[in-house]
Design a protein that fits this description.
The chain is α+β, with helices and mostly antiparallel strands and 364 residues long. It folds into two domains: 122 residues, no CATH class; 219 residues, Phosphatase 2c, domain 1, CATH 3.60.40. Strands 1-10-9-6-7 form a five-stranded antiparallel beta sheet, covered by helices on one side. Strands 2-3-4-5-8 form a five-stranded antiparallel beta sheet.
């Protein structure tokens, strides 16, 4: 038994050595495995034509489309199509079903070739490209992670993108200073859904760095200067910036062409709009942003939101804000736990990105 096992180990060791040499020479192991798979399937089609159909050659094409990079994929597609032509010529009999299978395989190969040419700009395989997009999306969301806050403060935010995708032009950036001051900005980048997602990614990283390095009063001017330097065709964004002293409840609010924030006075039991003025980011050099000051007392709440919640065609935005505040009274009823999610569910539609951040100072 030992001798028999050693005989079987010889080809296994040879295959392992060849695999390692291929890996060291720069040939991806995935490509080697797919070439072997293609050869095996072609052999099975020739040996058992009544059992193994031609259409099985679609399998290595689909797998290769997900695993191979744009440099290897076109050559592998050509290899599969050559194997298909060889197998078809060897079989000789071309019935209608076989002709349809050949046409389908060639069509799939052509589509994959076109896809690989588009991927060549990025230089990564399909599955790796998707992983990169997921990582980029997670980084956008991470920028909006709310830092740990004192027990009396509760800050939640909710984001819904146009069409239900996971990429949006709305994002939140938050930062807490060592002095106990919370800075948070809600941004709406021009465009919708995936179109604005790449710009939102770049801006969220840049705005996060600016917020942590600059005084509150300098954030929006610096963000405006950054956008102007990008020289994008659609390089503008609106933003509302809240700087909150969590010890006293005093706040400063600045807006850059953004819908105004709203404050809920727990004592009076009503909402009021906090008007603040400032030009849209990325349009005017040396822009100035007016500061609105106030104090959040225990029980008070504030909402910062994007225009997807209040703006619709044919309706003035002021009417949309009134509707939102009416829904806030009806939906929240003084209970702000998970308030951002509940309010977004009650407002807006799938045609625009929607973002809302709710700040609440608990009573006790």
């Amino acid at each position: 038994m030992a001798e028999h096992g050693s005989v079987l180990d010889v080809p296994a060791r040879r295959i392992k050595r060849r695999w390692e040499r291929a890996s060291q020479s720069g040939t991806p192991p995935e490509l080697m495995a797919l070439v072997v798979l293609t050869g095996a399937l072609a052999s099975m089609i020739l040996l058992w034509p009544d059992v193994v159909p031609l259409i099985v050659l679609v399998l290595p094409l689909v797998v290769g489309n997900n695993l191979l990079g744009p440099r290897e994929l076109p050559w592998f597609v050509v290899l599969v199509l050559v194997a298909l032509a060889f197998v078809t010529a060897q079989r000789g009999d071309m019935d209608p079903r076989s002709a349809v299978a050949v046409g389908v395989i060639f069509a799939v190969g052509f589509i994959i070739l076109m896809t690989s040419f588009r991927r060549s700009r990025l230089g990564v395989a399909g599955s790796r490209g998707e992983s990169m997009l997921v990582d980029l999306r997670d980084r956008i969301l991470k920028q909006g992670a709310i830092p740990a806050l004192p027990p009396e403060w509760d800050v939640t935010w909710e984001l819904r993108s146009a069409g239900g995708t996971l990429f949006a032009g709305d994002f939140v950036v938050a930062s807490r200073s060592s002095e106990g001051r919370l800075d948070v900005v809600v941004v709406d980048v021009s465009g919708k859904g995936e179109q604005a997602g790449t710009r939102a990614l770049l801006l969220s990283g840049a705005f996060g760095g600016l917020m942590g390095a600059l005084p509150s009063s300098s954030f929006l001017p610096a963000a405006n200067a950054y956008l102007l330097r990008q020289d994008w065709e659609e390089g503008f964004a609106t933003a509302v910036h809240l700087s909150l002293d969590m010890a006293s409840g005093d706040f400063e609010l600045r807006s850059a062409g953004h819908p105004p924030a709203a404050l809920h006075d727990a004592g009076a039991g009503r909402w009021s709009v906090l008007e603040s003025e400032g030009p849209i980011l990325g349009l005017v050099a040396d822009a100035e942003f007016v500061t609105t000051r106030g104090t959040m007392r225990r029980g008070d709440a504030m909402v910062l939101y994007t225009d997807g919640l209040v703006e619709t065609r044919g309706r003035d935005i002021a009417m949309g804000i009134d509707r939102m505040l009416g829904q806030a009274d009806r939906v929240l009823r003084g209970d702000f736990v998970n308030g951002a999610e509940r309010l977004v569910d009650a407002l807006g539609g799938p045609g625009d990105d929607r973002g809302l951040l709710l700040v609440h100072r608990r009573v006790g």
